[in-house]
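Fold this complex.
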Amino acid sequence: MRSIKHKIDICAAVAHVTIKEYLVYRSHMMVSLFVGPVYFVVQFFIWTAVYGDGGALVGFEYEQMIRYFGITALLGYVTWNSADWNLSMLIRTGRYLTFALRPLNHRFFALSQKIGHRLLAIGFELIPCTFIFILLFGIDMRPSNIGWFVLSVALAFFMNFYVNYCLGLASFWIVQTDGIRYLYALLSTIFAGALVPLVFFPVSLQFIQFFLPFQYISYVPVMVFLGEYRLGGFTLSIPAIVGIQGAAVIVMFILSEILYKSAMKRFTAVGA
Amino acid sequence: MKKFFNIYFTCIKTAMARALAYRLNFVLSMLIALGWNALFPLVTILIYGAGASFPGWDFYEVLLIQSVFLLSTGFAFMAFNGVLWSTMHHIREGSFEIVLLKPISPIFFMIAANFDPECVGMIVGGTVLFTIAIVHTGVASVMAVGQFLILFTAGFAVMAGINMLMAATSFKWVGNSRIPEIFDSMMEFGKYPATIFPKPLQGIAAFVFPVSMIGFFPAQALLGDLEMYMIISIIPCILFMLFGIFMYKHMIKLYEGVGG
Amino acid sequence: MQIINVKNLTKTYITHKRGSGFKETIRSFFKREKVIVNAVNNVSFTVEEGSITGILGPNGAGKSTTIKMLCGTLFPTSGEITAMEFRPYADRKRYVGEIGAVFGQRSQLVWDIPPIDSFNMNRAIYGISQADYKSRLDELAELFEIKEVMHKPTRVLSLGERMKCEFIMAMLHKPKIVFLDEPTIGLDVIAKAKIREFIQKINATGTTFILTTHDLEDVKQLADHVIIINHGVKVFDDTLQNLQLNLGEKKIVELTLEEPFNNSVLDDSVRVIEQKSPLELVLEVDVSKTTIGDFIERLSKKLSISDISVKELPMEEIITQIYEEEKTED
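Structure:
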């Protein structure tokens, strides 16, 4: 009990510091208020043209497709993080040592940091952009089931964090991790579902996504928002897919735990 | 003029030598750039693959627009994109004086010194897509090729203007690495057949922030579908470039006035 | 009472030769040549509770490797370390909660916000109660004279002010041992003096200090126990008094003259170490036999000097002298 209270205390203090730190750059965050809606406008007209007189495309009605892109854009503000880059910079500059010198698990520190950063993003990016989407474009922003949706978004946040943190850990072994990170960014752009709903891809490619992290970061919560989930020829109930998403996050967490442990072993052996 | 070319080519040679010194890194970053290029027409491919389309456009016509867009941005990034990052760096470190100390025009120096050979990847990718598209669509006439080259040059001018505007912004918005996102988002309007957008947006993309000239108009020339307003919009393109250059120079003047 | 006990500490690194150029890089990708580096070799010593121990040595001697092992962030290849009731590398997380550390160039402070916020973060990390935190911070802020400074963003602080804040950051949780890696590096003379003064004040409250440095002055002003490491091997381990007895009180004087040097200034307190040219030379002055003031006065009467500088004995010189000392003892 005491240790949980202590953890919450650390998380709050680190998040607070992070919020203060990034508050200095809030004007950078507000770039999203322009960029987000502009990208959305382009998407809007692309799909309006494609749908033409109506009908359905790969099982999506026009209305759904527009909501899909609206919510995808907004979701990004909650799940985005740069844990990979931050960690690899700490290792490359040798500043990681200052964390090893404190009674602290760095992954927990980084997670707290990202929670703080996202709280700020909710204030400066998510809420204003949501208003723009609702008021300017008249998009229906009511999730089919708020409870499952919030849970799925939280899981997506954790998924993205653990994956990025693992990419950052690679810096303990490899000096230049830019290549790996770019490759991951490329794959995740394609397969997270931000470009098009994943059901556009060939069925075999869709099926593989159950075993890769990408869909759990964006496609799953967005489909939970819309209230129906289909991929790789399967139609799953919302509780079922959120359950799978939860299992995927646990697997990723265990993976990051193993990687973190062996990274610490390496750090204490060679000092990075 | 000869002096300018001399300096420029010396800078290009240095940039090439620098890039080739880290061959592995150069090859890797080119491959990654190629990967991103493959991504570029992905949405279009998937839309047409699902049996849908942009009304009135077949797949290869859209691919042609997008490949021209890619080529234009590839050439322009190679020539100008380094100016933004270098300006941003100098402003943050307070070292822009180094540029001002050179006995040549600072804007010319920044362009020459920041030539980026790594954008070759984009140009290669653009060329491949362009070839695939043009084989299927064909070229309307010899005249069309001439018109294409003229409009492509105008599109390059727009890209030059955009890059100068970005660099100018970085004088005021110190250290904001998200500046390119703002311009990237607006350039999105140039990637697709402009006819999918409502008339007011088409007007803006042709005459105010003339991004249609980057991909759409030159592709239309090749397809033989050129309209009068597209030719007229060469004028705002040139003006846009001049505006970009003016803004960058203006920011340098302000910088000199304040003295860092 | 001993607070740290180090026995036969050894750290060996295996690194790989890295080729330069494309071909070499590819080749080394498949077949790598191993290079074994003995960073620390069979070092033993003890540290008394409440003392200030200086670990001295030139760059790359193994000081940093040693202090990292003492802090628990680096595993020894062999040997034993006992600090308080811990084995640092085995009980890292519990152990580092009881120590403090400042590693010169690696800041714990968050760049864009005031140090006070970073302090509060460490309060949470070390689980310090609000009441303890408040009284401790008041006390330290008073001592370090940073009551106003700590409310300004870190990025606008001077290097000296930042260093003070690093110290506070590492001492909020009342560590029993504090490790300092090059604490005065890059600071100006006044800031150095301040930092040394603070170390002494905190030490007076019973905190044990261990610091690495390549600045002899740090050790002279602070340490009561000196360990010198060179090429990973301990070459000296004794009190400061004995080090000074060993070395004598010597200073280095670099001279540039306007006319060729003549031997008339030399006596038993002065010897020539190096003569770069007839007009440039380096002297060693034994200040236990004469004062620097007297020496310069005498010098300026006999020679016309265009430039002069007085320095501490460089690390390399100290080590050479210690080796010579050992040889004569054998």
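Chain C has two domains: 2-246, 249-329.
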